[in-house]
Each structure stands twice: as C-alpha cells, then as structure tokens.
Amino acid sequence: DAKTTQPPSMDCAEGRAANLPCNHSTISGNEYVYWYRQIHSQGPQYIIHGLKNNETNEMASLIITEDRKSSTLILPHATLRDTAVYYCIADNYGQNFVFGPGTRLSVLP
Amino acid sequence: DSGVTQTPKHLITATGQRVTLRCSPRSGDLSVYWYQQSLDQGLQFLIQYYNGEERAKGNILERFSAQQFPDLHSELNLSSLELGDSALYFCASSVTGFNQPQHFGDGTRLSIL
Lengths: 109, 113
Prior knowledge:
The complex is a heterodimer.
Chain A lengths: L8 E5 L4 E6 L8 E7 L6 E6 L4 E2 L4 E4 L5 E6 L8 E8 L11 E6 L1
Parallel strand pairs in A: 1-9
Antiparallel strand pairs in A: 2-7, 3-4, 3-8, 5-6, 6-7, 8-9
Chain B lengths: L4 E3 L2 E4 L5 E6 L6 E8 L3 E9 L2 E5 L6 E5 L5 E5 L8 E8 L8 E2 L3 E5 L1
Parallel strand pairs in B: 2-11
Antiparallel strand pairs in B: 1-3, 3-8, 4-5, 4-9, 5-6, 7-8, 9-10, 9-11
C-alpha cells in the first residue's frame, strides 16, 4: 500500500470550506484513495473514496490530481461537528487499511 | 450508525486474564476486520476474515486469536492480558473486502488493571 502524508493539523472557520490535502506520490494504478474521520474515540467514519475521477457525496467531495499523486478532501460548509481527525488511505484491495496519524481539523466558531 | 455492532462497550479486567470481544457486521457484509487503537500506536490492523476464512493478518500477537462464525459474526479473543493491551478495539465490515470501504463499529474499550 502506498504511504500517505497529511498535515498534522488544520483550522477552518465555521461555514467555510475545509480543504484537507493528502500526498500519495507512490500510489499505484489500482490503489483507491479512501477518506475516514474519527471524532473523539468513536469508530472511524467512512467519508468517501475514489480511484481516478473526482467524487462527491452528501458529506464531501474528493478531488484527485490527474497524476494521482495527491488528493484533497473538501467539506463544503464546515460545522463544529466536523471537528475530528481525518485519515487519508491508499489501498488496492480494501483489506488491511494503514492508518497514519491523520490531520486534526479544528472548526472554529 | 454504521450498522456494525460491538459488545461489550467497556471491559475492565486484570493482567493474566482472558476476554472475548464480539462483533456483528452490517447486514450483507461478508468480511470482518479487527483493529487496535492505543494512545501510542494509533489504529493498527490486526486480522481480516471473509466468509468464515482468515484472509489477511496484520500485527496480531500470538496471545490474540479471532474467528468468524457461520452467521458471520466474529469474536476476538485476547489472553494472558498485559497492561499494554489496554486499548480501543474496533471491528469493521465490508461486503466482499475488495476495493470497498470498511464500516466501523463504535469499539470496545479494554482497560487492564
């Protein structure tokens, strides 16, 4: 599985878009990019995943660069409840996900 | 609510003891995963089962074992417990386990005294 690199922390103002970057420069052609978040000590919550194309669902949008070496998770209108640790994972089988330290997003009022 | 159910939510026991953690996957999911999250190690993959068979193994200690039953629920058995085993243990499930997201339960918090 490709290694991913994320900034350790970010702040975002409530109501603004939160853009969380992830670097996965060694990703292989069949590896998907998954995003999860963990609020306090709750179970990680699945957000979105994609292979090549940009993806959008009710929670977020995922923008993957054309060379697939990086991606950005976009929360369009961040709320206080979006404060969490966000994990970016590159995986080609959906098996043993490797969770790094993630990005601690703080949404500020 | 992810649809993955873990019991118990909290477990307190002593060193040297044995415990069993239980996981019921989402309806229709055939694959179950176990993860350990401790303060100093982050989320670590332990083991995966698919339709009753072990499919992948991570950093699971020999003192730990797991199985998936015909009704697809899974149990994680931890024995000869040590203080360092204190952690959150998460179960996740997915439909087939290939190129699909995993959905996590709320975890079991294990405290070793």
